Amino acid sequence: MPDDIANAPAGRFRGETLPSGARVWRGIRYAEPPTGDARWRDPRPAAPADDVIDAVRFGAAAPQNTNPAIDLGPDAVFAEDCLFLNVWSPADADPAGLPVMVWVHGGAYTFGSGSQPLYDGEALAARGTVVVTINYRIGALGFLDLSAKSTDAHPFDGNLALKDVLCALEWVRENIASFGGDPERVTVFGESAGAGLVTTLLAVPRAEGLFSRAIAESSPVSSVYDAARAASVTDLFLELVGESDPAALRDVAVDRIVQAGTRVFAEIPARHPGTIAFGPVIDGDLLPEAPDAVLAAGRGLPVPLLIGTNHDESSLFRMMKSPLLPIHEDDIDRMMADLAAERPDVPIPPKQQILEAYEGVRHREIGLGIARDIGFRMPTLWAVEGHARRAPVWLYRFDHATPMLHALRIGATHATELPYVWGTFGRRAHDLTFRLGGRRAAEAISDRLQQRWVSFAAGEEPNADDAPAWPAFDAEERATLVIDTHDRVVPDLDGALRAGWGKTPLAFP
């Protein structure tokens, strides 16, 4: 059988052999189309294919509005029938099976796909891993919680996107050996919303055994809400889509659903700073408890975790005028007041105590720092403190920015580590990253970062050649790897933040 045909339990898939010798299989269906009566229902694993399937083109991306910050590629198509995955395998795949890295894309739970040019898996695969990128349902089709509206005649399920990811991981467990991967060494990794799904999986009992390691880049760990908040989002969606009867929703054109979901996406954080419209829901079943609480208490799945954030996460949201992070002082004050009102059982640090953590920061930049830390850094730190008692944890902060990103006052903002992880510089349209130079230094950083990520996925410590060893996090040293032109390990890098924000995780219910 030709090398580019994988003979798997799910079927025979004809892929493409790249000039490097690596192989890629695109657009493999892992679940049946979630359309018609299956809209807002649990994913159903795809039936095994009888004939050889040509897996040479990406499957459709989930329906969404295009976003200039997210390049989906020149040939992207959108359809509800979007539950596909892609596999890259290196030229010299080990017959015994290579470590597997399964990517969950970001995009605020509303944008993106596993086929973005940024996520081309060839460079990572060349380092000795099988790479899988997945699509899942996003926006209202993936995260709207209609389960409370369910009837015998018109049933609805919840946490669909999270279940899609679980379904994809189950496909990987059953099939990846046929593509050169070791199903016992699966690392699930993601960024932003994708990282949020990764950290959520650590609190999902059903996920146990589906992956052996996890990487979370800029995870909004605490942006997971209870059923009451999810119900308020559902009510707003029904109002905006113009359908008071949920039973009629399966007949609504997908474009109307996307447009109504986009309006909800903008409206929720405007009404309630510090919250987002869509995300996993604490349903008492699949997701019994809030992931941030589970991780902080050291009760997550006993899976080694590599996790961190970027130095300037929030500058991207300021540049895009996005409502997702409360950057302005009045929005921050509203957020803290709402937190105090909704969580009277949680000690909210006094404002002055928080501000002391930003001593020396220019006044106009304090809001950016607070937004960064309440949205990303502090939820990460609270999770790390607890999960390190459960399994080994490696904590990082990505500080590198090219001269152009410094000139634009963007710095190491949200998602700027991605081309370093994937080795895909220049894949994004209208990329200004190297307009003022800095490519050689960036490529050296990318080389080290890829070594660290792949070593971790292989079950080893995340170290790199000619770079400091990265010790696991512990409660005494609190070691953090600062990733920059020259990596360095810093003990208790976030001591001032911990003093300012306190030990108790802050999150909306």
UniProtKB/TrEMBL annotation:
Keywords linked to the UniProt accession: Hydrolase
Pfam family name, one: COesterase
SUPFAM superfamilies per UniProt: alpha/beta-Hydrolases
Top-rank taxon: Bacteria
GO molecular function: hydrolase activity
Carboxylesterase type B domain ranges (all copies): 5-488
EC number(s) reported in the record: 3.1.1.-
EC class: hydrolase
Family: Belongs to the type-B carboxylesterase/lipase family.
Listed name of the protein: Carboxylic ester hydrolase
Organism: Microbacterium aurantiacum
